Amino acid sequence: MSRAFVKETDSDKAGLPDRPISLHRNLVTETGLAEIEAALARFETAHRTSAERGDQESAAAALREVRYWKARRASAELIQPADDRSKASFGMTVTLRRGDGREQTFRIVGEDEADPSRGTVSYVSPLALAVLAHSAGDTVVIGASEAVLLNVR
User: Fold this and answer.
1) CA-CA distance, 92 to 82, in Å (whole number)?
2) Which residue from 30, 19, 108 is spatially nearest to 76, judged by alpha carbons?
3) Residue 134 maps to a domain
4) Which of 31, 45, 68, 120 is geometrically suited to a Cys-Cys bond with 19, CB 3.0 to 4.6 A?
5) In terms of residue numbers, what domain contains 142?
6) Which letter, b or e, does each residue of 124-152 get, where b requires 16 or more Cβ atoms within 10 Å of its Cβ?
7) Within 10 A of 107 (CB to CB), how many other CB atoms are there?
8) How far apart are CA 142 and CA 103, in angstroms?
9) Are residues 12 and 3 in contact, defined by beta-carbon separation less than 8 angstroms?
């Protein structure tokens, strides 16, 4: 049948493509899982409110977020920090000293929880990959420079 004979509804026009979802495992901390739940609830409320107001554009944007956060919740793998606190791993906080003397502290978390401005980095980021499985005192290569792990907790 030709598209000329297919009725488009207003909701079809307002639909948005899904947000891309990472191909990496969706590892989450307890905080990350709580943030996923909060985001899902926030966007479900936004969708309901926009739909009730008849704001199709906002409803479509909120529904797109609902689909994303439902998928992230469904694929979430809650990871507890390792019992062995001597080596950097998921959920742990690492402090390192860069070659220029700057110290940096960050927590290794899931992709959705990562926010470098808040001191969290994704477990698949180059920074996290450089320190994973290393202990305090180890020297690691980050980009073109070296850093020494000062503390792993």
Assistant:
1) 8
2) 30
3) yes
4) 68
5) 93-152
6) bbebbebbbebebeeebebeeeebbbeeb
7) 20
8) 13
9) no
Quick one: 98 and 148 in the same domain? yes
Pairing of strands 120-122, 139-142: unpaired
Place of tokens 């509804």: 9
Decide: 135 and 152 in contact? Cβ < 8 Å.
yes
Give the mean pLDDT of 130-147: 95
Residues 104 and 129 grouped into a single domain: yes
Say what the pLDDT of residue 2 is: 46
Length of the chain: 153
Regarding whether 107 and 69 lie in a shared domain, the answer is no
Chain centroid, CA 120 distance in Å = 10
Residue 41 lies in a domain: yes
Q: Read off the pLDDT band of 59 (50, 70, 90).
A: very high
Query: Which alpha helices (DSSP H) does the chain contain, by range?
Result: 10-14, 30-53, 56-75, 126-131
Q: Are residues 65 and 114 in the same domain?
A: no
